[in-house]
Amino acid sequence: MQKPLAPGVQERKRLEHVTVRFAGDSGDGVQITGDQFTNTTAIAGNDLATLPDYPAEIRAPAGTLPGVSGFQIQFAATDIYTPGDQPDVLVAFNPAALKVHVNDLVQNGVLIVDTKKFDKINMAKAGYATNPLEDSSLSNYRLFSEPITDMTMRSLQGLESVSAREKERCKNFFALGMAYWIFNRDLGPSLRWIQDKFKKSPGIAEACQTALKAGYNYCDMTDAFQAVAYEIPAAPTKPGLYRNISGNQALATGLVAASVRSGLKLFYGAYPITPASDILHELAKHKNFGVITFQAEDEIAAMAAVVGAAFSGALSVAGTAGPGLALKSEAMSLAIMTELPVVVIDVQRGGPSTGLPTKTEQADLLFAMYGRHGESPVAILAPATPAENFLFAIEACRLAVRHMTPVILLSDGYLANGSEPWRIPELSELPEMKTEFAHANGKEFMPYARDEKTLSRPWAVPGTPGLEHRIGGLESRELTGDVSYDPHNHERMCVLRAAKVARIAEDIPPLEVMGDEDAEVLVIGWGSTYGAIRSACRRVQEAGRKVAQAHLRYLNPLPRNTEQVLKRYKKVICPEINLGQLSHLLRGRFLVDVIPLNKMQGSPFTGREVLEGIEAVMEGRPVRQPGSDRPFLTTSNYSEG
Amino acid sequence: MPAITASKAEKQKFTKADFQSNQEVRWCPGCGDYAILTGALQVFAGLGIPRENFVMVSGIGCSSRFPYYVNTYGFHTIHGRAPAVATGVKLANPELQVWVITGDGDGMSIGGNHLMHALRRNLDIKILMFNNRIYGLTKGQYSPTSEYGKVTKSTPFGSVDQPVNPVSFALASEATFVARTADIYLPHLQSVLNRAAEHKGVAFIEILQNCVIFNDGAFKDVTERSIRDDENVLLEDGKPMIFGKGRKKGLRLKGLSVESVELGQDGVTEKDLLVHDQRAEDQTLAYMLSRLDHPTVMGIFRDVTRPSFERRAHEQVQNAKERYGEGDLLDLIRGKETWTIK
Fold first, then answer.
1. Do residues A583 and A614 both lie within one domain?
2. A545 and A452 belong to one structural domain
3. A472, A637, B268, B319 - which has most CB atoms within 10 Å?
4. Which residue positions in chain B have pLDDT lower than 70?
5. Which chain A residue is nearest to residue B311, measuring alpha carbons?
6. Where in the sequence is the domain holding A561, given as residue range(s)?
7. Is residue A310 within 8 angstroms of chain B, CB to CB?
8. Under CATH, to which class is B12-235+278-327 assigned?
């Protein structure tokens, strides 16, 4: 896969893993640069994990600290699980980006800075009194002060059809070209991507491609870069066909796959909301799969329409984020009461209220569990990695239809926007999804009769002769579905609805334990903390200690053996991006003294943060707050910090 | 979902009894809803469409119990959301005949937003709004159509709200079929429902309805037999707007308003009167007519043709299939850039 050495390079230094971060103004094209670098890295065969991090404002005030957009990727010659703790290479397009990110850079790390914006005004906006590129404040790093913008402009001098402003905007491709040289990457994939992306503006395409090549050639001809010529060999991995995929892409693709496998028309109802909108955008492209996307007037209508489409017999899915889930709870209760199959995707973000719309969090778990009036159980699933969203989208649909119940799929901002290499499955590897609508059989139709095994009721869709019936939000009499205010019927129906969801436990795999079965400490997590926990546990083991890891992908019902697993260990630690919601559930359900390890900073755990937590627990020390030396923040010691 | 094959050529014969469910009707004795139910059941039976192809969707309130009494598919949903639920039902299966039953509280208050969007999208559903100008099921609070100053349980000193006019609202929301009728005008109500059923697109019908318990006489100044002729203008397409005992009155345009005139007085003749045009593209005149309260204008204000929402949505699907071919799942999963590990 690797291309031969670039001319002039004697030898490239082999590295096992590298973390690179690109940072600039939110209009600098940082996310595109990151995406392209990721794609090319994936094609080169490295394992990788990414963390895009951008502000909520589309164009935050230029040059300011809150306006900085970042993209981090770790890639390696071995299996990796996180986007990396600290960058080894930082590319900064302006003083603000430097200011925000430079302290994360490892000692002696490679620091590439575009000098263009280091003028008085921009340095002042970032809070620099003197030029950090010229004083000695960056002496701990291998600093490359490069006139990236100026060189980009010069490389595009002859291009008549492109304005100066458009030329300037190509600087991210120049920087990308530099990064490609440093890591010995093929320019082909990005050149092809540019061609495709700008096929309607050939001038822009040419400018971007020229800038990319110019950045690459600049490093090739500049001796100073010889010292940072690296080679990261491909990671040994299962043979097969691979692609890079983000969480939201995987989710959308999984929903289409579920539709094709089940033969049910996919109906996706949504209202635009970060970070879930990309699922709507993706699905809206796939109308040739018969997909109906409905952008509703509000979150409530989106959910209500999804319930209506489920009544009509469609594979019905709603996608949203925290505040939207709150608005959906009313119509979800209707789906619970009428026992219709719907899938609700919650791409969690920092809350409450508008909170941190573009940042990740896992604080909707208890809301997903309990955030509805009445006794209103739903099934809850949570994929652990971006690519897992594919199979879990199918799984959510399968469970909803088979068990005639709403299913919530909890993703989050980190999973949604993060990406990883994914071995593309054969169609034969995808789960079966048999669905059958009810048909008249000569007997009186009972809309609330139940399947003995699953306790689900029949799915009888309008248009079917002989099955005309009425459903609604009022309590239904068992079997007939007639409105019933009978107290014993209500009690029985509440228990039946709960039992139906509980029985899903028979239909899901047991909780798997990784690592040392005979360890004293178990680390249990759910959702997107998987990578950080995996990486931390591996480091614990590398240091010669024993630790076990279990990861819950089914939150309701929990896998059958969850209690058995939890009670096998002396200590159970639960890292979460919330204030202890799974800990609370597990403690309440199993009376196990789960030790919470929490972070609420709008960013995922790093492997090191989890590692420090595990070590503290192992050594009987108090858990520290991630990213600081302070004790772990709790509601009782919040004032001490 | 099952394909619906009943073709129009073989219009089937049904009776009101075919559409009557086995559920005991539980509205208060004397409620205007009984008459509306009877009228609607006869209309459904007369359409020649098998009952399994109907879906009644309702929200919350007295009117919203309607689906239980109709032997078709029915969905008694949640407060205000019936148009949104119906949107899903219809989009997922455009072949279905979807009727929404709502009230003034359900449709104009908590569900005002959904109603507006269902109307402007021109979803091919029929929306019957039972307007009794009161919250009945919660036992008598003022509603968004209650008159200013209305004394109710929640407004002991009179309501300070300006009421909304449902027909004006529907016209302003770009509805393609808008009508007003009343519970006690059964033949008129049925003819309006029949026209609504024929309309390809959204139909909004305000039905003035009496609440014997909490707002008795809600529309007696409009519909009472003794004053009815002078207080109602019945719209007839292509005909001058004549009304009143002995058909001696008419409606005439005066500047930017509509006025009531006596034929024969001050030289007013039939030629001076407004002639109703249901198919007028511009709804301004219809809107002006909807605002009148003495007399109140009844009938079909507007009936224009535009492609319906679900048809446009499904045409996009069809076009995409023709343009790109039926979706290939493996192609989709593979995406644009792949690589092979051996």
1. yes
2. no
3. A472
4. 1-11
5. A292
6. 513-618
7. yes
8. alpha beta
